[in-house]
């Protein structure tokens, strides 16, 4: 029982080949665009790699880049096949090449769907990676004299200014970390000594934040220090003050940004996937229709095109048998090379 | 004696026409580029309109936009003409239009050159606009409750962050203005009252700067207040400290930014002008060689092409004479009947008595 049979008169075949050739050019550009989007996403992720702990999320742009490149190659092949299908003498050379080509292309195209699913599935992993990365960045903010960490202050400051965010979850994260280096603390002053003694680890903690948390949209000059003390500042109440600092946390800001990017890229990838699948299905129809023409004298006869010669289950069983036979041959080949006794048996039929 | 004559065979003429057709289409693209550059410049100037005092800065982008549009149209027409010039019959259609077209294009290329030079001359106007504009913006920094000025704090903060600059010429400009609004000053405190009394105008001045002046690259947390007081901060010397705040003034930063844009645009416009001039020269040669072909009558013959038929001096003299005669005709007709003051030299009959001048009808 043939799967999805369709009749193809000569004109329909020709039109299918021509339309498919044009479509393969469109799909080639679409593949190039997918590659470009993969590159863009990778560079954006790489730019903030200093605040990301793990690189799991990079699999999404890597997949996009690989499939984009591969689809350019696939579509060039498809275009060539279409061109040759118009000439019955040139078409037979594709006979052995096309079945594995289809399997390979379908597999690669389905990777696009995998990439899209992964971009949603890896969101918790991204969030976790950012949580750890930002925590480290905030902890090492003061270590501008330690090699390997001296850039953290600049990274975190630029991040907070650009993404309009403060701290990991919110600005209170800065209250739990010593972000002023000991180099700039006067240990002879009473205030410093009190603060350092007020906690177990001997850290200088204060209810203040760095300047990069300041919100330019605030109507009053930025209040960075003594944020919890209403009496220090005139006409200030920290419980109701909303515009003074950025209220969003940097983890939330970055996750929203990357999810936004992937949601924008999503429809384009989906379009590329659908286009590619349409091309592969049409190419399969063209191939099977042309196979009916090979060897015939009159090339303008009507032929049938199908996706699978037998039903799905039967085709799977057949492929399983084929693979088993290949493996057996390989085993027998190994066995015959190790036991020379079997050789004269093989020679006998030749002499007989 | 013609100016720069070149001999043109039939194939050479045809090739010239084809090449000019392609070049005219490229010029249409360059016209579009000019248009886009004009729009880009307009957008960039409008983005920082709050920081620039009112000056004639819009004239340069408007000129570029107009020139770009006119270039598109002129070169589109030129492309059509050159396409038709391959065939001598079709050339006859355009024969009368070509000379006015060339003269118009010549004046148009002059305006492209003027556009390019204006880009370079905008520097002076820009400097003045920025000085006054930035000074006012800083003065109104604190007025976040005054309608019409409430956005200036945000604008100045974002400017200082983006362009990595502080104040007008340097961070000390902030010491001379009150940038903290009275709404946030506790007038009952002694310190505030002292500061207000310390100057004639009663302004709250201090040696502090807004947070947007802070330098991201500094190894220590930003010192915004009591900048000139070394004892207020541990391990701090304001005379040697360079990384704490942005050292550059915003006037210089913005001027550099806009000067870079203007120079790039000016250079592009100059290159486009040279290209237009070469296309114009090619069209002139094509026109003169085709006219000579028509004069000789044989479409396949070799003809001369030149820039001017006679030398510069003679052409200038003949044009001047034409203009003078045009002027004379105007003068004569403005007095009424052209025959009034002219003595008649005709023979009026056997007596040869000249007619008396006819009274003019009023």
Automatic annotation (TrEMBL), chain A:
InterPro entries: Peripherin/rom-1, Peripherin/rom-1_CS, Peripherin_LEL, Tetraspanin/Peripherin, Tetraspanin_EC2_sf. It is a multi-pass membrane protein. GO terms for biological process: visual perception. PANTHER family: ROD OUTER SEGMENT MEMBRANE PROTEIN 1, TETRASPANIN. Keywords: Membrane, Transmembrane, Transmembrane helix. It comes from the Eukaryota. This is Retinal outer segment membrane protein 1b. Residues 333-352 are annotated as: Disordered. One of its GO terms (cellular component) is plasma membrane. It holds the Pfam family Tetraspanin. It is found in: Membrane. Belongs to the PRPH2/ROM1 family. The chain crosses the membrane at residues 20-39, 59-78, 98-122.
From TrEMBL, chain B:
Keywords: Membrane, Transmembrane, Transmembrane helix. GO terms for cellular component: plasma membrane. It comes from the Eukaryota. Its main location: membrane. It is found in: Membrane. It is a multi-pass membrane protein. GO terms for biological process: visual perception. The keyword Acetylation does not apply. This is Peripherin 2-like a. The lineage of its organism: Eukaryota, Metazoa, Chordata, Craniata, Vertebrata.
